Each structure stands twice: as C-alpha cells, then as structure tokens.
Amino acid sequence: MSWWAWVLIALVLLVAWYLSQTAGRLDRLHRRVDAGHVALDRALLERSSVAGELAAARMPDPATAAVIGDAVHTARRADPVNQLQRSLAESNLTQVLVAAFDEPEAVSDCSELPGGEELMVDLESTTRRVELSRRFLNDAVRACRDVRYQWVVRVFRLAGHTPWPEPFEMDDTPPPGFGSR
Known about the structure:
The protein is an all-alpha fold and 181 residues long. It contains six helices and no strands.
C-alpha cells in the first residue's frame, strides 16, 4: 500500500472520530435538555402544591387565598404538551404570588400564623427552584441549539429525528416580599 492510501485511511478515521465525538456531545446535550424538563416539571409541581396548601390554609387572607387557589387550579389543569398554555398558566400563578406577597409585611403576617412559617419557607424555596430550573433548562436548550446549528451536524444528520429543543418561557420573578427574610 502506498503512502497516500495510509493518509486517506488516517483522514477517514479522523473524520469518523470527529463525527462520533460530535454525535456523543449532541446526545449528552439532549439528555441535559430532558433532565431540565424533568427538573422544571418537578419544581412547578412543588410550587403549585405549596401554593395550594397556602390557599387551603386561607393565607394571607380568604380573598387572596381564593385567587391563589384559582391560579393553582389553572396551572395544574394546563396541558403539559401545550407549552404556550402551560407557560401562561404558570406565569399567572407567579403574578398572583407576586401580588399577594409584594410587601415584606405580607410575608411576615403569614409567617406569624400557625404553620405559616413552614409554608412561607417552602413557598420561597420552591419559587427559587422554579427560577433556577427554568434557567438550567433554557441554558441546556441554547447549548443544544448551538451544536445543532453547526453545518457538520446538519449535513450528516447527527441529530437524527430528535425534535428541535424549545425553551420554556414564563414569568418566574420571585415575589419582592421574599427578599427581606
């Protein structure tokens, strides 16, 4: 075999190795996106559960508790497949919580009630987890999209038939009253 045949074999092996590495990276990124969806789903469910407990305990007052309960019910009934409907329902719950706990006094008033301290700590932590989980998911989606935009990935169809990753957009601003604790 001549030297150019060895060079050609080495070049083919190098290209095959590069494609394999890129496909592996893309697979890891897709798994990261899936893990981000699971973490966000869990955080949203925990937040709605704690907000539901808060509404059931009629905190901070019965009228606000009814509005929170309605927002929780809407968020839980949102179709998980329809991202627009779900993000609007979750954003609505966020806005209701922001309106209910816009002042540190509202948070401290609830904390003084029996069982209120635990509920407020749980609500604050789950609200922060929603914010972090959504950020983690959207970072994973951005990284995955960056790799999928590469010409090598498109030409050699390294993503296969995996659906295009979509970010989850919603209002996840924590209530201002939580920052004072």
